[in-house]
Design a protein that fits this description.
Blueprint: H1 4-14, E1 19-23, E2 27-29, E3 46-53, E4 56-67, H2 70-80, H3 92-100, H4 116-120, H5 125-128, E5 131-133, E6 152-154, H6 160-174, H7 178-181, H8 186-197, H9 199-216
Parallel strand pairs: 3-5
Antiparallel strand pairs: 1-4, 2-6, 3-4
């Protein structure tokens, strides 16, 4: 469950870790030669990507680096206390967005998922000053082909079968010789590639396969 990251980070802070780096289960490294710790500076305590699009910004807690400070421990406590967000659109991410006062900054199509109070709130600049917005390459979240600079690919919001196949494809890309060593895997590799890059195409393929199956039955 997405909310579990709050408890996990709290527990690790209690054990004395200075930083905790969280990655959702449907996200993975596709480049292994970059270190997230290089993004750390003395001015910020929270590091994450905010996706730009549709006339708004959407912070994403699927990839989250947090420094252990009094303020971040208090933030996590506040997020966990938000029982009204238990079943919210993005769970703890919804609570985090409201904690920063950024509900009104989201693309308008998401406004209906937030209360009038949240949408009327102004950005909490003192809290935002502690947030560093990372380059999208640290949490690339789209069905399109990722640019070569991408470090972490995130498949949140997609169907489970789609996520698994896409992650298998990206895992094999790390060992680029995989499909050459095992030609029998080539067709499955192409299949994974298609559904990892274009959701609509994947849906069309599934429909066509279903129609052919019905004709043969």
């Amino acid at each position: 469950m997405s909310w579990s990251k709050v408890l996990v980070i709290q527990a690790l802070f209690q054990e004395g870790y200075d930083f905790v780096f969280w990655i959702d289960a449907d996200a993975m490294f596709v480049q292994l030669d970059q270190d997230i710790s290089d993004q750390i500076d003395d001015q910020h305590d929270i590091y994450l990507v905010s996706h730009d699009g549709e006339g708004g910004q959407t912070p994403n807690c699927g990839v989250w680096l947090i420094r252990n400070t009094r303020e971040t421990r208090h933030m996590l406590k506040e997020l966990w206390a938000r029982e009204d967000c238990i079943n919210a659109l993005w769970w703890e991410q919804t609570a985090f967005i409201e904690y920063l006062g950024l509900a009104s900054e989201l693309p308008k199509r998401f406004h209906r998922f937030f209360s009038r109070k949240a949408l009327a709130a102004t950005p909490q600049q003192d809290r935002l000053n502690k947030v560093k917005w990372l380059d999208p390459k640290w949490n690339y979240m789209t069905s399109r082909i990722a640019p070569k600079s991408t470090v972490i690919r995130h498949y949140g919001g997609l169907g489970m079968h789609h996520r698994i196949a896409a992650m298998i494809y990206n895992m094999r890309l790390i060992d680029k010789s995989y499909y050459l060593k095992k030609p029998g895997k080539l067709f499955y590799g192409i299949y994974c590639f298609l559904i990892s890059t274009n959701t609509r195409l994947f849906i069309r393929i599934k429909i066509i396969m279903g129609l052919k199956r019905n004709k043969n039955s």
